[in-house]
Design brief:
Elements (H helix, E strand, L loop, with lengths): L1 H20 L12 H16 L25 H18 L5 H10 L18 H16 L12 H15 L22 E3 H18 L2 H16 L12 E3 L13 H17 L4 H12 L32 H15 L4 H18 E3 L5 E2 L14 H12 L42 H26 L1
Antiparallel strand pairs: 1-2, 3-4
Helix pairs in contact: 1-2, 1-4, 2-3, 2-13, 3-4, 3-5, 3-13, 5-6, 5-7, 6-7, 7-8, 7-9, 9-10, 9-11, 11-12, 11-13, 12-13
């Protein structure tokens, strides 16, 4: 309880900071000066955290540690936000929010310490759980301060999520892959999407690098190979959103989202690094990076990131406004751990950062960040995702100034548990997970068959 009291004291500090931020001018950014980048990041971090905790009494706006206010924010975006704040600390050394971030990450682990809280069962998908996994994996890699000894540890939490993903791997349809949803009673269980499978791939790759355990690398390769033979990843490295498993994944929703590319780029960069620059993973990483040009339209000089599927006509939903954050995050990681990519990546991160800062000149604070970076003044479309995207791309310009992610042999201090999430004390490293049964699928099919057409075609309808 003492730890959580410290965390709530930190909320008051957040309140005082964000109140001061309300009198600030628009964000200024000089990318040649690391101090200017850090100052801009600090302003935006304060504006973003104001959506989570703002009042003088030090309470969370939603009333529950680790949750943003719903609606409009689903559980997963809070995990993504905390992951961004771990990286904010890494880039800036600003400890203002550390206790707050730790408390949020720990409060949502659920009774089995695997990010499966019962009150999220109606909304939680595999990709949602994985975004919390990314956050705790970053905490382990970056040596974010470890939780108290009597609390779950960062690495063990990431391993728990990995182990659960292996158990959900479904070979009965589409020759493998993870469903979008975890529970059969949720709409979308029969949709195998890139975010879930790409997220599993990335988490496995990062665990391989951190621990040196080849089993994680084997799983990363297995999942990537499945994506490659599915319609979700083409031979020319175009990344599509998902596929209907009731049709045995014979076609795909061909919408291209920046976060799907970012997730795969992050995983491929870690595998390139883990394999000491293998030709295979260099080819894959380069192919994915080359296709990100779709998010940097030549109309805007080819160096400003745009969520082209929904941003130009302002049709993005609450989730989608945050997607640019993840492409920026993992492009930066690629530039750091696969250095040959930096020459092509950094100009895009610089151009996007300067454009994002120009958008951070609206709202009550005078620094609230809008969504459309190709405009020079705020479009007035603000929120957590917009702040996160701006914070991510601006902070990413410090990537070559900071140390590379730690591993267990290069100074990483987080304690792991290879058996976490398996329900027993033995290490479970299966290369075949427990398939979903026909009975399980039947329950999902009744609920989802009628809505799958909407899932597969909804994104196209939305943007047209």
């Amino acid at each position: 309880m003492a730890f959580f009291r410290r965390a709530f004291a930190a909320l008051t500090a957040v309140s005082l900071y964000t109140q001061n931020a309300f009198v600030a001018e628009a964000v200024e950014l000089d990318l040649t000066q690391p101090s200017s980048i850090r100052a801009a990041a600090k302003t935006i971090a304060g504006d973003m955290m104001a959506y989570y905790a703002t009042n003088a009494s030090g309470t969370v706006v939603s009333g529950i540690p680790g949750l943003l206010t719903y609606p409009p924010y689903y559980w997963w975006e809070a995990g993504a936000m905390f992951g961004q704040m771990v990286e904010y600390w890494y880039y800036t050394n600003d400890t203002t929010y550390n206790d707050l971030v730790t408390a949020g990450l720990l409060f949502q682990v659920g009774p089995q310490a695997n990010y499966m809280p019962a009150n999220q069962s109606k909304d939680e998908g595999n990709d949602d759980q994985l975004f919390w996994g990314f956050a705790v994996m970053s905490a382990a890699e970056l040596n974010f301060p470890n939780p108290p000894a009597d609390q779950p540890q960062w690495l063990a939490l990431a391993q728990a999520i990995f182990n659960q993903m292996t158990q959900r791997w479904d070979t009965t349809l589409c020759s493998g892959g993870l469903p979008w949803q975890i529970y059969t009673f949720n709409n979308g269980y029969d949709y195998k999407n890139t975010a879930s499978n790409g997220g599993f791939f990335q988490l496995a790759a990062r665990l391989a690098k951190y621990t040196g355990n080849q089993t994680y690398a084997d799983w990363a390769t297995k999942v990537y190979n499945w994506l490659e033979q599915s319609p979700l990843l083409t031979s020319s490295y175009q990344v599509y959103d998902g596929s209907n498993s009731l049709k045995n994944c014979t076609d795909a929703d061909q919408m291209q989202w920046s976060y799907n590319y970012g997730i795969l780029i992050g995983g491929a960069a870690y595998m390139y690094n883990y394999t000491n620059g293998s030709t295979l993973w260099q080819t894959r990483l380069s192919g994915l990076l080359n296709n990100t040009d779709v998010f940097f339209p030549s109309t805007y000089g080819g160096k400003i990131m745009v969520e082209v599927a929904c941003e130009l006509n302002q049709k993005c939903d609450t989730d989608q406004w945050s997607f640019k954050a993840y492409l920026a995050r993992w492009m930066a990681v690629a530039a750091q751990i696969a250095p040959y990519t930096a020459e092509g990546i950094m100009p895009k991160l610089k151009g996007s950062a300067q454009a994002a800062a120009a958008q951070c000149n609206g709202g009550a604070s005078g620094t609230a960040c809008g969504s459309r970076w190709f405009q020079t003044t705020s479009d007035g479309n603000t929120g957590v995702g917009q702040e996160m995207s701006a914070l991510s791309v601006i902070s990413a310009n410090l990537i070559l100034e900071v140390a590379a992610p730690k591993t267990a042999v290069t100074g990483g201090t987080s304690k792991g548990n290879p058996a976490a999430g398996t329900g027993n004390g033995e290490t479970k490293n299966p290369l075949e997970g427990n398939p979903v049964t026909t009975g399980d699928r039947a329950g999902a099919g009744i609920l989802t068959t009628l809505v799958l057409a909407g899932i597969l075609g909804g994104a196209w309808f939305m943007v047209t």
